[in-house]
Amino acid sequence: MNSSDFDFVSGLLKRRAGIQLTTDKTYLLESRLAPLARKEGLASIEDLLQVVRSRRDERLISQIVDVMTTNETFFFRDKTPFELMKEVALPDLSSQRKPRIRIWCAACSTGQEPYSLAMMLEDNPVLTKGAAVEIVATDISPRVLEKAKSGLYSQFEVQRGLPIQMMMKHFKQKDDLWQISDKIRSMVTFREHNLMDQPTMFGKFDVVFIRNVLIYFDQPTKSQVLDRVSSVMNPGGYMLLGAAETVIGISKKFEAVKERRGLYQAVGGANKSGIRAA
Amino acid sequence: MKRCLIVDDSRVVRKVARRILEDLKFDTMEAADGQQALEQCRADMPEAILLDWNMPVMNGIDFLRALRREPGGDRPTVVFCTTENDMSHIAEAIRSGANEYIMKPFDSEIIESKFAEVGLV
Asked: Where does the record place the Response regulatory domain (chain B) (predicted)?
């Protein structure tokens, strides 16, 4: 891929999805765009980009963004965030006697994260002390959202991170696939959303999971995304980031919860957990 | 170092599983059927057992039931690893004392994830 094509695609990805692509990722670009070019009946990546340049074909642009977003996920990924929910966030939120706890899973990919939360909450009603729970899960890709909504997973996917007892309880076999129960599916609302846009239409949240997404953005974009997240959080609400991510030096709208790596609280609320960092 | 007994009548599956488990720092032993596995357990009970279902002489489920009746047979963590991938087999395995269940084909990620699930890694 020549430098002009690289600059064109990386500019497109930056504008459309905030993704920061450096030249050392040229191989990634080529390996994902080549199958798309073939699927579109085009001879090469160069031809694909030529079509995009000349026709500004929105469908094709959307597909380029789609294939370039990373959808790696699995049930109860990293475990720790779910423990933090059980041990810190939910006890604090439920002690506030909220009638409803609202959770946003941003960049939810194929749905394993929101469904993991739904299963955890369904199996541990004591965590929410009777509060209703609403989980809104969003992603930029309509393709992954379709899969998420279907609740259908391959044998390989249900074996990554999901304890067998939980699979037996919440899934049923459907031909070669496994489908999550209607009850768990009904606990999650999936919506299309680009993190470059305001999320205000989804209302205010008490908890936001936004994990392993900021790593794809440059510093100003990270800061803007965190501003948007903070704008839809109730004061004192909790945010969970990926293990390799932080707000330090990026946003002053969140404070790290002391000795709870990956857990942050929106600034401005009553600090019920009493463990906020200085 | 934890010891894992790999019970499978396929030499290829045992070899693949052994490599994965050795990467996870297990000391491995092998048995080609349930009867061999039971004799090995009577001589030296391992901490973990990766167990196939369909095997000659004694199948996996019969081995598991016999193991759980042995002195100290409640100790090993048993992870089934089988092509039997329907809910009735899974439920039967769990009822019979299996701790986790892997549906073949497997890879290193699945073994590691399932072993982590039961506190073996």
From this structure: 3-119
Segments of chain A assigned to CATH 1.10.155: 3-68
Residue span of the structural domain in which B106 resides: 3-118
Spatial neighbors of B111 by CB under 8 A, at least 6 apart, are: B17, B20, B21, B24, B50, B102
Residues B34-69 pLDDT 10s: 999 999 999 999 999 999 999 999 999 999 999 999
- Which of B86, B87, B110 is nearest residue A160 as measured by Cβ atoms? B110
* CATH code of the domain covering residue B24: 3.40.50.2300
For chain B, first and last CA: distance in Å? 11
pLDDT, tens digit (0-9, with 9 covering 90-100), for A93-142: 999 988 999 999 999 999 999 999 999 999 999 999 889 999 999 999 99
CB contact (8 A) between residue A172 and residue B87 = yes
Please state the φ and ψ torsions of residue A99, each to the nearest 5 degrees. Answer: -70, -25
Angle between helices A3-17 and A26-39 (to 10 degrees): 80
Distance of residue B96 Cα from the nearest chain A Cα, in angstroms = 14
- Look-up: residue for tokens 């920061």? A20
CA distance B52 to chain A (A): 16
A235-271 per-position pLDDT tens digit: 999 999 998 999 999 999 999 999 999 999 999 754 4
**A positions 96-155 inside 8 Å of B (CB):** 155
Say which DSSP state A276 is in.
B
Identify the closest residue of chain B to A155 by CA–CA distance. Answer: B103
CATH classification for the domain delimited by A80-149+183-266, as one of 3.40.50.150, 3.40.190.10, 3.40.50.720, 3.40.630.30: 3.40.50.150
What ipTM score was computed for the predicted complex, to two decimals? 0.91
- Among the four given CATH numbers 3.40.50, 1.10.150, 1.10.155, 1.10.357, the one describing domain A3-68: 1.10.155
pTM over 0.80: yes
